[in-house]
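Dear colleague,

Thank you for sharing your sequence with our group. We've completed the structure prediction you requested, and as agreed, I am returning the results in plain text so they can be pasted directly into your records. Please verify that the sequence below matches your submission; if there's any discrepancy, let me know and we will rerun it promptly.
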Amino acid sequence: MHQNRTQYSLYRPVVVGSEPTMPTTCGAFSGIIILAQCFGLFPLVNVRSENIDNGENSLKFKRKSFRFVHSCIIIILIIFNLLFYTMQVAEIGLDFETTVIFLFFCFGPASTMLLMHLARKWPSIMQQWTQVDVKMESYGFPVNLKKHLYLTTIVVMSFFITYSLTNSPEMKNVTNIWIGLNEYLKKVGSHVFSHIPYNPGFGIAFKVVEITITFVWSYMDVFIMTIAIALAARFRQINERIKRILEDIQEKQKSTLEENDNVETKDTEQKQEQNGGLWMGIREDYNSLCQLTAVIDESIAYIILLSFANNLFLILVQLLHSIEPQEKTRVIDRLYFVYSFGFLILRTSAVAMTSSQIYVESTRPSWFLTTQLPEEYCDNEVERLLTQIHATGGCFLTGNGFFKIKSSLILSIAGAVVSYELIFIQFHFSGFTWCYSDLFIMIMSSALAVRFQQITTRLKKITEEQGSRWRLEGARKNHAEESNKLWKEIREDYNKLCVLCRTLDEAISYLVLMSYSTNLFFILIQLFNSLRNKNTREKIYFFFSFGFLISRTISVSLYAAWVNDESKKPLLILNSIPSHLYNLEIKRFVQQISFDSVALTGRHFFHVTRGLILSVAGAIVTYELVLIQFNENLLKEDSTILLDTNGYNIGAN
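Please find the predicted structure tokens below.
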């Protein structure tokens, strides 16, 4: 069976368990580990060694070493730094700025201890990774992987250095370097030296602590990105091998057809037997990578969670600063805000996009095998590989199970950030934001609905063309095959639209929820005001504002429900297709439309369909009837609130 695996000259055989004869991932990560050790992190010995056999010169976590003592001293200083700041907070109290700094100092001990814990596991992780490298030796080592890892590290850390320099305290009127240095250290460690006498040695030590915490903040992102790059590169190699095998099979099929056009099939079992060992090898390599990904995810899950939490927290803090009055802000401060905010956004996006490549590359074999592999070559090993990919949903890193890093995570984060910013802006510029959020939902809904309309239009055209061809030409031998291929293409296009709709919904579902909540709240307020006595001016204003609210809410609902309406229309056409044109792909298409609900949602609390309009109307009518019933007890002229369409109080009697 192993001989079958090496039939193709493209692929060299490998004896699993042998020593690697090429670079390993352990060696590729050595420079990144050494960088961390410069700041007292990752207390490992023999970092440059690619030997993982637990020998004297192998990579080890060693407690009786200078690096371990260095790491312990750094962690102790970071903990003392947090304790001193906690004492200062207890004295002066908490406000927004002190809370931000306090959480930043809390990040220090958490991140350094997590990296210390990871350092204990790192030799065993590298041992398993090297075993995968040896097993996949026939694939070759990923091209330029080491350079790619180092380039990523240099780019991110260079931004970190610039960010740290621009964030340093400003010193004025300093004529003596030594005096200036002492003043600088006192300012940096003010929370420490308010409790203990100032000493230059302590000042330098706690400045090192601040630099280390800032470094760890960037290093954790770099570490996650480099891990993801290395894993995705290995999955990409499997995809490239599958692609080459499929190309070989297609070429072999063409040559066979040219030699003998009359041969329908050439012993399917023989073809499966010839390629069975090859597919078994690929499945085993894929499974080894999946197991390695699971081990790594278990080891760095808390690091990922802490990294994303810290980055998002700082992004939200910067967003809050962005809506503060800018009249008294200096130009240099505005430039710093733009740079720092852009740095945060780019880095968080880079971590998410890089990490999501593991999921993208690990699910790609499914597409190759289901769309390009001929049926006669599909054996038990191929089915096992497909079953594994579909059952597990591919491989990915996670934030300790709270979230999975896929491509859609970026949109989810963006949606949450946008919703957060809109809520803050609404407190400052409520009128524009309120209208714009509704307009944005309507535009996005229209764009999706039009795409579904195109699918429906194409279905009508194809159904008519196929019916005409059948009447003119009758049943031809290759007619069914062409029809299957065409319907499969349309079904896959429809499926891509459904996936796009779900991705968009994840991104804007908070916005939809907020839009409906705001609109309904002001409708109910206006209904409450409808029961009081009004003069002519107030009556005109009431009818205008109430009509505007109702019209806008209905418009948003109709536009958003348009997506659901158009997604169901293909079903009517598919059900009317004559029996002689009906095939398996059409059946799958019908089942997908029947059982898959495509609609925008308010964070899954409700689906925006036409039925939602009646539900909202029923709730409003019920509310109004209750108000009318208790009118005499609830309404008093002196306490009536009248709101304009922007939600502002414009007067009361």
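Summary note from our side: The beta strands are 44-45, 60-61.

Kind regards,
the structure core
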